[in-house]
Amino acid sequence: MSDVSDPGDDAVDRVEDMEVLDPETAAAQIVEGDLVALLGERDEMRSLAQQIQADFENYRKQAMRREAAIVERASEALVEKLLPVLDSFESAVTQMPETTDPGVRKGVELVFAQLVSALEGAGLERIEADGQPFDPNEHEAVMHEDGDGEPVVSATMRTGYRLKGRVVRPSMVKVTK
To answer: Tens digit of pLDDT for each residue in 124-157?
Structure first.
């Protein structure tokens, strides 16, 4: 005799265990019991599928946030590397002698404007410091001079910048207090 049981054996055992009923009523009870079991399994599988779908959606959102953070850090690093170039251009434009060929002057100013525009498009903004109250979060005091009242920025030695609202380089300033 084989250990493999016939699926129908269980149904036969259940019929034999029942009170003596007419065959139609017994069959209806078996079908109803099987239907209840199948509906329970279906609900369990549906719940499991919904849980897996929710977990996957959470994973997808988390992966997108990580990707965005990586891209943001990479662009921030690039902008930080370009700040000395921006400083050099700004210095060249402001210190260029008036005797410089107008075409050369215009070309340097145009390239400087394009660089500023590209960086601003990436979210870079200047920190305006002159005349503002001293803020250690945005200003790096390198010189002090006596004055009256609260500390105020009296001169900017090096422009500071924010990238998407976060300070990437504080302004190097002279403070009067």
So the answer is: 999 999 999 999 999 999 999 998 889 999 999 9
Segments making up each domain of the chain, as ranges:
126-177
Task: Compute the distance between CA of residue 111 and CA of residue 52 in angstroms, rounded to an integer.
Answer: 53
Residue 13 pLDDT: 62
Q: Which of 45, 59, 115, 65 is nearest to 86 (CA)?
A: 115
Fold adopted by 126-177: Nucleotide Exchange Factor Grpe; Chain A, domain 2 (2.30.22)
User: Helix, strand or coil for residue 150?
Assistant: coil
Containing 65, the helix (H) or strand (E) segment is helix 23-95
CA dist., res. 124 & res. 161, Å (int): 7
- Tokens for 164, please give them: 């998407």
